[in-house]
Amino acid sequence: MADSMAEELTVNATLNETATNGTGKIPATPEGMAVAYTSLFLMAIFPIFIGSFRSVKYHKEQKDSGEKPETMSSKDAAMFPIIASCTLFGIYMVFQIFSKEYINLLLAVYFFFLGVLAMAHIASPVVSRLMPSAFPNKEYHLIFTQGKEENKEELMNYEFDRKDLVTLGGCAVIGVWYLVKKHWIANNLFGLAFAVNGVEILSLNKVSTGCILLGGLFIYDIFWVFGTNVMVTVAKSFDAPIKLVFPQDILEKGLAANNFAMLGLGDIVIPGIFIALLLRFDLSLKSKIKSKTYFYAGFVAYILGLLTTILVMHFFKHAQPALLYLVPACIGIPVMVALIKGDVKAMFCYEDHAEKKETKNDEKKKESVKKVN
Asked: Other CB atoms closer than 10 Å to residue 301's CB: what's the count?
């Protein structure tokens, strides 16, 4: 899982203000910048809020089915910044050697399929509810196997209906729009879909693992943004929906605007999966009042960290590693709340889908059954 995450989230920490630099772009007005950063802010918090609640449903379905979802271990979390660094530098070298146009063409096709599937996954329940009862729905079951008889192995087992096909068709239209025009709205629709799915499906099962992951990426972010120009170069060259963008000149040019501010999806997904874990921890607490204290603490912390990033970037007029501000906030505030409420031990002992440990009484019962047999 770490490899796939690294591939999709390498440009994970860049809020970048595009200024006039010989490209003929008009400098952003204060009003245009305010609109752009407000829009990015809202687009950033939306996937975290929605994805966190979807993650609760996803984990419940996994638990009910008896499946244990793939989660990131502490070792994976410690290795992730190293893998992400190697991937980031590898992409940077590829852009130095090969034509940017050909690379982005391949990426566009790749993300076309990923984006259509990601959007369909989110939109399918909504479309199904909106469909009239008179819609001639039919269910289908697609099974793909290899081998014969005893050697038969199931590779795919997928159930869907005509409503799902309608949803997929609508998402494919948006995908073609992105593929042909590369319009920033289509880019953002794909980016939001990736972010919501990432927060929902990518799983941290322990708070300690989340702290290791965020701590490692805290250092990773600072090094690659302040120490080199690699992060910013890749962010500008990598023409794929792994970042949310919004034009700062939209008031002057409308939908044809092209002077963009941007926020990497990693600045949303990485803190988001930690905040989603806090929500699941909230729901695990056996208290009479089912509050979501730690989720809202983490969510407010993310908002404060993101606002700080935008303000610092605007003041210094330089790209900022967003995790420099997000990580201390997202870890520090929930832990501080836990200290006040006396839940620190419970927080760091909590584990999603924890395997039930056998007690001494269970072991004695098993031994007595063996003796009887």
From this structure: 25
Residues across the chain = 373
Sign of CA dihedral 62, 47, 16, 99: positive
Q: H or E segment at 263? A: strand 260-264
DSSP state of 73: -
| Closest C-alpha to 270, from 186, 347, 194 | 194
Provide the annotated active-site residues: 221, 267
Query: Taking a C-beta distance cutoff of 8 angstroms, is the pair 226, 13 a contact?
Result: no
pLDDT digits (tens, 9 = 90+) for 180-220: 988 999 999 999 999 999 999 988 889 999 999 999 999 99
Mean pLDDT of the region 335-358: 82
Note if the pTM is more than 0.90. Answer: no
Domain boundaries, the chain: 2-128+182-372
Question: Cα separation of 254 and 252, whole Å?
Answer: 6
Q: pLDDT digit string (tens) for 224-251?
A: 888 888 888 887 788 888 889 999 888 8
Among candidates 254, 296, 238, which has minimal Cα distance to 45?
296
Contact 127, 166 (CB under 8 A): yes
Question: In Å, what is the CA distance from 231 to each residue of 65, 97, 104, 111, 214?
Answer: 41, 17, 17, 20, 18
Beta-carbon contacts of residue 138 (< 8 Å; ≥ 6 apart): 161, 162
Check pLDDT > 70 for residue 27: no
CB neighbour class for 290 (10 Å; exposed up to 12, middle 13-18, buried from 19) = exposed
Phi, psi of 202 (to 5 degrees): -65, 135
Least confident of 4-8, 257-261, 361-365: 4-8
Output Rg (C-alpha) for the chain, integer angstroms. Answer: 23
Helices (H), the chain: 2-8, 30-64, 74-97, 100-130, 162-181, 184-201, 207-222, 230-237, 250-253, 266-284, 293-316, 323-341, 344-349, 360-372
